[in-house]
Design a protein that fits this description.
The protein contains 3 helices and 3 strands. It has a 3-stranded mixed sheet with strand order 2-1-3. It starts with a strand and ends in a 9-residue tail after the last helix.
Length: 104
Amino acid sequence: CNLVYTTYFKTPGYYNSVDTYLAELGMHRPITKPDWDNLGKKYSDMSNSNLWLDDNLVIDGTVRKFYSVLPRVEIELQYTNMLFNKYQYESIRKRYDGDVQYFK
C-alpha cells in the first residue's frame, strides 16, 4: 500500500482573520505536537485489520500537517494490485485466504 495522511488541526483561536485565511490556503502550517511520526503510527495502527491486514504492508507513506476551521484527517490509500516477488507472495499467502498473485 501507498498512503498519504493529510491532517488538519484546529486553527488556533488567537489567529486573526488574515492568519486564518492563510492557514486555510496552507501557508501557515503547524510545527507543534503531535509529531508527524506519531500521527502516522496512530492512524496506521487504527487501520490494521480494517483497511489492510497489517501496517507492515505499507511501502510508502507521507504525513502532512495543516490548520483548518474544519479539523479532520484525510487518508489517501493506494493498494498495489500485485506483488513483485515470491518472498512477498509467500509472506502474504500465509496470512490471507483470498486470491493472491504476483508478477513473475
